[in-house]
Amino acid sequence: MSTFIGEDISAMFQGLAKCFHHIYASLDIVAIRCALELHIPDVINNHDGPITLSQIARGINSSSLNFDGLSHLMMFLVKRQIFDQVHQPEIEEPLYTLNPCSKWLIQNPKTTIAPYVMMVTNSSLRLLLENLSKCIAEGGTTAMKAFGVDFWSFLSVNPHVNDIFNEGMACGTRITMDALMSKYRFDGLKGTLVDVGGGLGAAINDIVTAYPHIKGINFDLPQVISTAPTYVGVTHVGGDMFKAIPPADSIFMKSVLHDWSDSDCVQILKKCRDSIPGKTGKIIIVDTILHRGGDDVFEYTRIAHDLMMFSLFENGKERTEVEWKKILNEAGFYRYNVIQIPAIESIIEVYSD
Predict the structure, then answer these.
(1) Alpha carbon distance, N-terminus to C-terminus of the chain
(2) Of 9, 27, 100, 105, which is most buried by a Cβ count within 10 Å?
(3) Are 167 and 113 in contact (CB under 8 A)?
(4) Is 258 marked active-site?
(5) Per-residue pLDDT tens digits for 232-276
(6) pTM attached to this predicted model
(7) How far is it, in rounded angstroms, from Cα 144 to Cα 246?
(8) Domain residues of the chain, as ranges?
(9) Catalytic residue of the set 39, 258, 291, 305
(10) Contact by Cβ (8 Å): 201, 235
């Protein structure tokens, strides 16, 4: 290859292969969505043991099924390690089974990530990323480039997309809360716990249900909490966290601060400080901590989230621990503790003393 004179030709071909791998990576999520729409994970899960392609086809129950197309799809998904393929001596056809990846795609309301898949493959939301280069070259957000309004305004006038987004976010919250509740205990808290930016109240309900001695407040914008369901032990309060936060003994805040600039975060944290006791108050932040160069299994996802936050919000970003310490100190908090949980996010305990 005369184009690469002086280059390691083997390394260049490996680089080409990696380029093609990334170019066609967009098919991964499309194929996963296809499998969900055809209910393939549930068809396999409902079968007693490994299943043939013919049995999967019968489980899909379509009178005009393209069997050859199903074969191509399963070959791709096995190659991408979404499903496993096994062989048994007495059966000529290959057999398919679930693996630890595809088990997350089963329609189990407590563990499925199917709503998250439907969110990231939504055509309107994917259109945002097509404007990433403009966002970098010209400034602004992908939502402004694509729709002429900020992200939240776009959702407010597109209820169908808003529902898909909320279902995807709720799915992520369930997974994070399961991880959090398995590793972190709230029994040391007393009195009132306010969830700042708590959305429809699912997270604070999980906490209060497990620890009924805590009085829960779900705090978010009035238009958000107006549709929140009733939970025993939880009071919904509407307001603006930049103006005032309801008085409480402790504060819980999940996946809120990564939407905002450092200066905005400092302002929010100061409002949190104003609402909790000066000596015994605590803020429990559940958010992403970047480990640049780290090899944690979730680190790629954290970096992807960082790019997504930047594209969606004017100053959104994920932060390293050093960056977290900076905004905490600027808000008047000098003591904190990081707790790792089996999730994309970590817990940052912040003390008011």
Answers:
(1) 66
(2) 105
(3) no
(4) yes
(5) 999 999 999 999 999 999 999 999 999 999 999 999 999 999 999
(6) 0.86
(7) 32
(8) 2-105, 109-174
(9) 258
(10) no
Q: What's the one-letter identity of residue 278?
A: G
In three state form, how does the secondary structure of the chain look? Answer: CHHHCCCCHHHHHHHHHHHHHHHCCHHHHHHHHHHHHCCHHHHHHCCCCCEEHHHHHHHHCCCCCCHHHHHHHHHHHHHCCCEEEECCCCCCCCEEEECCCHHHHCCCCCCCCHHHHHHHCCHHHHHHHCCHHHHHHHCCCHHHHHHCCCHHHHHHCCHHHHHHHHHHHHHHHHHHHHHHHHHCCCCCCCCEEEEECCCCCHHHHHHHHHCCCCEEEEEECHHHHCCCCCCCCEEEEECCCCCCCCCCCEEEEECCHHHCCHHHHHHHHHHHHHHCCCCCCEEEEEECEECCCCCCCCHHHHHHHHHHHHHHCCCCCCEEHHHHHHHHHHCCCCEEEEEECCCCCEEEEEECC
Q: Which CATH class is domain 2-105?
A: mainly alpha
